[in-house]
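Attaching the record inline, Q. Sequence:
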Amino acid sequence: AQDVARFVGAIFSGELLSSRSLQEMTTFVDEGIPYEGEQFGLGLVNYGDAFGKTWGKSGQVPGYSSQMFYF
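Structure, as predicted:
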């Protein structure tokens, strides 16, 4: 978990991506996919909730599941 937290922190702090790339990554669109309230960017999902912005990504393959959220 610490490696994912460090990676995500580096993305959003500007250590790994240019500001333009981060802006592209966090430009969310509604794709009409039936997950109420979720919008999709480049590699991220905008879950937005009552507490403010919540960005993340999840994935599953048989036997494994992972989730990452950035608040």
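Strands lie at 39-40, 45-46, 55-61, 64-70. The longest helix spans residues 2-13.

More tomorrow.
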